Each structure stands twice: as C-alpha cells, then as structure tokens.
C-alpha cells in the first residue's frame, strides 16, 4: 500500500479573470473551480489516475475539513484523516489573471496529542509499503517533524519518499529515504551553488547520495530531469513539447508517476520516463494530469 501524508491540506478556490487583476476595484471572475489541495493529496490523486490505490493521511478541521474529506471520497480516494477539535482546514484563493497571485489561508493548530495519533497510524504501515512525505511543515509543529517520523519508522523496511526543500530535506538523509526530489535550483541552494550543466547537477546529486539519499530525482522544468539511482546509474531525459498552462502539482505528479513506474516494473529508467510524462501532463493541463494525456506523452519520450 502507498500512504501519503499532508500535514496542512487545503481547499483551493481558483478564479479565472478575463484580464488584469484590479487592485483598487471589484474583480468579477469568468470561471471558477474548487480543488482539494496539498502535495500529498495531489500524489494520491495522480496515483489513482495511474491505477494505484493509496491512503491519504493528515489533519482536517471544521466544516472545510469535512468538505475536503467528502470531496476526496467522492473522487474515489481513500482517506484516514485525523479530525481536530478546533480551527478549520485552510482555504487558499488562487487568482488566474493576466498575472497570477494567491492568498494562502492559515491551517488549524496541531497539538502534541494530535501528532501522537498520526504516529500511531504510521506505526501500522507494513514492510515494503510506501510512504510519501511532502510539502512544508506547519508553523505549529517542530521543524524536525519529518525526522521524527523517519526515525520512528527507520527499521521497518518502508519505502519513504521525501519531497521537501533545504534543511527539511537534508536533515532526513541520514535515514536513507528511497527517493528525494529537489529541482535543479533547490539542489544548488543546498550547496550554495548555481548549477548550469548536467555534469554539475549530477555531481551535486551524488553529494546528496553520499549524505544518505538512495535515489535522487532532479527536475529541471523545460529541460527535463536527471535521476541518479541507488545502483550508481545516471539517467537523463528531456521534456516533451507542449504549452505550459499550470505549474501547480507538476512536481507532485512527477513523484506519483515515478512511483507508479517503479512499483510496476522495478526499472528506474521507466520510472523516470513515466514520472516525466506525468509531470508534463499536469503542466500542460489546467488541473492534474489525466490518463489519456499521460499515455500520449509517454509514447513520445
């Protein structure tokens, strides 16, 4: 089974304007949609599109939390959220106009007791299962939350994916995550470098591997991606052609595609190809990737 953790999920209210955003007047949207956000939730959603079952874990609160949970269930996702007694699941307002902007809400406070409930859920994960930890950690939680989770599960034989940045990422490497997914800019920031060539990116990906990461997947937007796998092989792939319409969820989609490809075949080269096709399919769409587009892009890679 695959489990995803979203510590601070959200309902995204997306509005599309016909032109520029007016800062000193009333804006009327031409269209709108509600999306259920959170990096782990995105991974679960795309994995379902690729025919893999998951269980989405995390915290919800208030009427917005109830709405998010019911919405995901209606979409066919399995959830096992912890319900908090105070606060509300956040609402993020995303404005799509001539330029884009967003207002991200504040989530509920997660207590020590609430986290203990999550730890007990994680304790039930079995060897050879997969756990995806993705996104930032809410301000109400200690910054070593991912470290604590991985330390607790260290000897259970669980395949753990960490999609995070800077210290959140480097501090968990000692627990040997199965997959980490910095982009080329984030990889450079970790080492205080600007990485411009494939050789440079491979060199610094290898340093993360030396620090404990098993498979290092570095995305490079329109330039494709590079994978340094745990067998010492360096894989490089370009990006399929298409018009970028959406950057939200593309990285989560790549994680989902990579996992689906690896779990299906055990082949890292195929996992990279499917991850690239899936991430690109989301980037070329208004929402998350759909299966037909994923298959079409996979065929040309």
Description:
By secondary structure, the chain is an alpha/beta fold. It has one domain: Ribokinase (UDP-N-acetylmuramoyl-L-alanine:D-glutamate ligase, 3-Layer(aba) Sandwich), CATH 3.40.1190. The protein contains ten helices and 14 strands. Strands 1, 4, 5, 6, 9, 10, 11, 12, 13 and 14 form a ten-stranded mixed sheet that branches. Strands 3-2-7-8 form a four-stranded mixed sheet. Helix 1 packs across helix 8, helix 8 (250-265) runs antiparallel to helix 9 (268-283) and helix 9 packs across helix 10 (291-300). The radius of gyration is 19 Å and the shape is globular. The mean pLDDT is 93.
Query: Quick one: how many beta strands?
Result: 14
CATH fold call: UDP-N-acetylmuramoyl-L-alanine:D-glutamate ligase
Uncertain segments are none
Assembly status: single chain
Helix-and-strand structural type? alpha/beta
Radius of gyration: 19 Å
Give the second-level CATH assignment, the architecture: 3-Layer(aba) Sandwich
Binned, the helix content reads 25-40%
Q: Which geometry do the CA atoms define?
A: globular
């Amino acid at each position: 089974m695959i489990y995803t953790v979203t510590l601070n999920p959200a309902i995204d209210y997306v509005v599309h304007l016909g032109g520029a955003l007016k800062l000193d007047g009333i804006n009327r949207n031409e269209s709108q949609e509600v999306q259920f956000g959170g990096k782990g939730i995105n991974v679960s959603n795309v994995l379902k599109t690729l025919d893999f079952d998951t269980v989405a874990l995390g915290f919800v609160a208030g009427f917005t939390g109830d709405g998010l949970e019911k919405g995901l269930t209606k979409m066919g996702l399995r959830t096992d959220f912890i319900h908090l007694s105070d606060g509300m699941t956040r609402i993020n307002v995303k404005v799509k106009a001539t330029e884009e902007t967003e207002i991200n809400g504040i989530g509920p406070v997660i207590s020590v007791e609430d986290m203990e409930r999550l730890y007990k859920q994680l304790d039930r994960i079995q060897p050879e299962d997969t756990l995806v930890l993705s996104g930032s950690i809410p301000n109400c939680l200690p910054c070593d939350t991912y470290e604590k989770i991985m330390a607790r599960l260290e000897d259970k034989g669980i395949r753990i994916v960490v999609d995070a940045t800077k210290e959140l990422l480097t501090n968990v490497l000692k627990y040997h995550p199965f997959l980490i997914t910095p982009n080329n800019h984030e990889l450079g920031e970790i080492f205080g470098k600007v990485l411009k060539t494939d050789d440079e990116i491979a060199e610094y990906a290898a340093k993360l591997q030396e620090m404990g990461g098993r498979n290092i997947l570095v995305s490079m937007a329109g330039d494709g991606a590079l994978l340094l796998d745990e067998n010492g092989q360096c894989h490089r792939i370009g990006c399929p052609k298409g018009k970028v319409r959406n950057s939200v969820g593309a990285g989560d989609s790549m994680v989902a595609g990579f996992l689906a490809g690896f779990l299906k075949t055990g082949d890292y080269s195929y996992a990279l190809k499917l991850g690239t096709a899936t991430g690109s399919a989301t980037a070329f769409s208004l929402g998350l990737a759909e299966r037909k587009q994923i298959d079409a892009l996979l065929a040309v890679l």
